[in-house]
Amino acid sequence: MTFESEMLAARQTFVVECRDLLDEMEHLLLGIEDTDDPQENVNALFRAAHTVKGSAGLFGLDHIVRFAHVVEAVLERLRSGEIEVSTELIGVLLPCRDHLADLVYGAEVTEHATDEQEATTDALLARLAPFVDENGGAGSGANAAEAAADGAASGERDVHLSLRFGADTLRDGMDPLSFVNYLATLGTVQRVRVIDDLLPEADAVDPERCYLAFQVQVRTAEPIERVEEVFEFVADDGDIRVLNPGTPAGAWQDLIDSFGDAGPAVAEILREFGAFDDAAVLDAATAIADAVSGVPEPATPAAPASKAASTTADAARPAPSGQGDKAASGQGDKAARDGRNIRVDASRLDRLIDLVGELVVAGAAASVRAERTRDGSLLEAVDDMMRLVEEVRDSAMQLRMVPIGTTFARFQRVVRDVSTSLGKDISLVITGGETEVDKALVERIGDPLTHLVRNAVDHGIESQEQRLAAGKPARGTLRLNAYHESGSIVIEVSDDGGGIDRDRVFAKAVERGLVDESASLTDSEVYDLIFEPGFSTAPQVTDLSGRGVGMDVVKRNVKALRGTIEVDSRRGEGSTLRIRLPLTLAIIDGFLVGVHGSSFVIPLEQVVECVELPSGVPDRNCMDLRGEVLPFVRLGSAFALGGDKPKRENVVVVESAGTKIGLVVDSLMGEFQTVIKPLGPLFEHVRGVGGSTILGTGDVALIIDVPGLVHRFGDRERARQFEAVAAHA
Amino acid sequence: MAKTILVVDDSASVRQVVGIALRGAGYEVAEAVDGADALRKLDGRKLHLIISDVNMPNMDGITFVKEAKKLPAYKFTPIIMLTTESQESKKAEGQAAGAKAWVVKPFQPPQMLAAVSKLIMP
């Protein structure tokens, strides 16, 4: 891999990582006004923005850093309480988050921003300006000025360094020599002298302790600050001095003094280096040395002084850290969860599911063949294998399950945006977010849900005035709820608005010619009319949802997922739209039946019971089921299968959309794990057939789409009756 | 024999970039995703330097440094903390724990290499 391609790969990792952070930011921003403790959100927001900025900096994505820096600065002020959470501020920060996301996603392909993105950056920075501290905004400018000043101060000369390393330097894993070595990157190291005044007798030496000090002369063009920076890691615990030639005598005097007893030796070195040649200072230093040389055990003032300094510094440090700890532990929970997760390419997962599907089919084939052998031990082994295959299937399906909460969370934004633009005050309450759904379903349910949510905000919940007049709180509530119910997942979108106006819906439907004026319909039948194409009752069409398209599209989308949608509504109290979807799209539990030598699979969820077809039923396609009239469909004739009627026929009673019907079949073959294989494009519009599957024997079985079949049969039945009536007349 | 550096950061992109820079400069690089992972990976192997982030899941950088410093094999291993300008207190904590060197995020690879070469000679 070349350097470029490695960096590109790393940048893609960066984009993936940021995606989570950016999602979190949106979530936090939306939640900030509702939470009791906005500080928690602000801290998390700040960390997220900071991490994005940090990683972007790593890749030299300066356009992202520039923008994120200002966002971060605003969040920092929010965090420190200089500014407060306000609707205006969130209103600016949300588009900032979006733009940040846009910039980050762009980084996947290019290191630079487009002109358009730059323009947006500038526009947003202008909007952020009122929230930015005057000094904070000028910060980068000041840095630039500083850098310019540094440049001016440079010029090649001999810089003198006095390095007294802290006693713990070695214990801290740092090698004094390594720093001196690094100096060579800034210029030429001219001379080095070691000062070993603190070195005790050999037997008293602590090998882990650093006793040495150095005097170094470097010829460099770098400014003093750059040279000092080399030693930033040891500056706190040691005594590092970097002096330009021509520095006033006082500083040199201090330097000599700091070495205490060794002062005269240092003065000697300075003279030798030619670093400083004020004879008065140097001579005085040497003279003092002569005078005190007789004093036993001289104190070294430098060491205790620096020790004292570092002790006070240590004591001062831990104090402000309390809040940081709390923030870190809060983040820890989430991060801990993340740590146990791994990312997998969705296509690999799909491949696995596909293979498991094949495995189920192959397993069934093996089982069929094993049965033919009547070999007990083989049958047992195959049974064991099938049980494991079933478990593998279940765990593989589990892999595809994701909590629906993330999809729900997206709607915070939708509700906020739509309600703001309509001048309504609506809060979104999410429950059941942990309910798990097949990932493919989650992706495809997003659009229909968006439509329902917008619709509820737009048409469902009344304006504030209307609400107050009706004695309701001004703030409307929209609820998103999800739960599992007998093999299906149910998603509810409910509002506490005015409910559906039955009469208006009916009137509208009559006006549109959807129903006859004289028709007597139940409430739920009337409500279902809103799913008819071209139906819209909103007197005032807004640009958001009321175009008369939508609800029918929603219904179509839900049906495409093998789901159903129903409405519950109470005048003045609100409505609930309930979407019921199968848990998964790839494998279902089916009920296998045989008809005239062909096999069909009926989704097990829809099977109520199986009964034998009573002999001698009239040729009216209905029978008596414990006193109820049960209409039935002969699958053989529905699919025009040739063949003779067997002696005994069975009826599988299925339930669809609240009505029971019977499917007449020849034989019942029991439950069957059905891997759904979609039909080719040629057949996908065939009503009554939902897909196909491969049986263990290698035969193909069609999967019955019960609602479709009922519809098809109903149509035909009506046509037949019509013909009969016409013939009479 | 190239010198080995352990990079501990929960962000895969940071590990990748730091790894690219260090390998390019001739170091061997080992990676760990958090403090706990890093401790497992220490396992007595010879390391010349450790670079660790501060905020990480499972075990944060400060705790990791404290734990690592307790192990005789790593008593003298220099440690660079990845701090941020807003985390002065964390920097001090890190230093108290034994990570005397630091690089402030956001940094670019040359800054990281500079800090590394101050501590160990390639």
Automatic annotation (TrEMBL), chain A:
Where in the sequence is Phosphohistidine found? 50
Upper lineage ranks? Bacteria, Bacillati, Actinomycetota, Actinomycetes, Micromonosporales
UniProt KW Kinase keyword: yes
Q: Which GO cellular component terms are attached?
A: cytoplasm; plasma membrane
Biological role stated in the UniProt entry: Involved in the transmission of sensory signals from the chemoreceptors to the flagellar motors. CheA is autophosphorylated; it can transfer its phosphate group to either CheB or CheY.
For bias type Low complexity, the affected ranges are: 297-321
Main location (coarse class): membrane
Ranges where the Histidine kinase domain occurs = 378-585
Q: Which residue range or ranges hold the HPt domain?
A: 3-107
Q: Does the keyword Manganese apply?
A: no
Subcellular localization: Cell membrane
Provide the protein name.
Chemotaxis protein CheA
Q: Kindly give the SMART domains that the UniProt entry links to this protein.
A: CheW, H-kinase_dim, HATPase_c, HPT
The CheW-like domain covers which part of the protein?
Answer: 577-715
Task: Identify which top EC class this enzyme belongs to.
Answer: transferase
Which Enzyme Commission number(s) are on file for it?
2.7.13.3
- The record lists the organism as Mangrovihabitans endophyticus
Q: Where do the segments described as Disordered lie?
A: 297-339
Q: Could you give a single Gene Ontology term from the biological process aspect?
A: chemotaxis
Q: Which domain of life is it from?
A: Bacteria
Recall the GO molecular function terms of this protein's record.
ATP binding; phosphorelay sensor kinase activity
UniProtKB/TrEMBL annotation, chain B:
The family database entries (InterPro entries) matched by this protein are listed as: Bact_response_regulator (IPR050595), CheY-like_superfamily (IPR011006), Sig_transdc_resp-reg_receiver (IPR001789)
Limits of the Response regulatory domain? 4-120
Q: What is this protein called?
A: Response regulator
Q: Which SMART domains match?
A: REC
The record ties this protein, via Pfam families, to: Response_reg
Q: Which residues carry this modification: 4-aspartylphosphate?
A: 53
| UniProt KW keywords | Phosphoprotein
